[in-house]
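User: These chains co-purify. Model them together.
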Amino acid sequence: KAGVTQTPRYLIKTRGQQVTLSCSPISGHRSVSWYQQTPGQGLQFLFEYFSETQRNKGNFPGRFSGRQFSNSRSEMNVSTLELGDSALYLCASSLDKGTGTGELFFGEGSRLTVL
Amino acid sequence: QKEVEQNSGPLSVPEGAIASLNCTYSDRGSQSFFWYRQYSGKSPELIMSIYSNGDKEDGRFTAQLNKASQYVSLLIRDSQPSDSATYLCAVARDNEKLTFGTGTRLTIIP
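Assistant: Joint model of the two components:
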């Protein structure tokens, strides 16, 4: 069974540009969550999507957005990049049987460097 | 007060000994509790989940939950060098975001 797939794995952008990251969840998983990981802040929750709807949202500015498609694949977008956006962006999927917060399975991440 | 607190370490444990990792959380409404292991340069990997008070054992790993004290712990028996990693505690209310601690770096000394 294939795991969570994230693309691209590495990317370099300059300030002011925008970036789109993609995530394909484990087959059958309906929930996709996005996290930002930095050495100083650890894992910070961005948002969660379930059945194409944003179910939970973290405390990030509106420059960070996401969406989920009918096949559960998800994308996140960061506009007007800032130096502080340099981080590892992790996508995680969950089976989510509707009985509570499910176990998250993470992809390898997309490492973004903003110059 | 942080929502999920862990001692950042590093925690050094001799090979073959028991490693004890601790985590406290602030939200009394939390229902789901998880331990993740993250090797350097890799993504977090789920190793244990626990939902009820008490102990849950899986191989060399035991998770302990005490909701009254808002405390979760992970014991690793017969520690191996391959257990050297950062261990992340994560907590959530039902159907809400999973909140992570900043992790405890564990080093197993051969």
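The CA atoms of residues 68 and 74 of chain A lie 4 Å apart.
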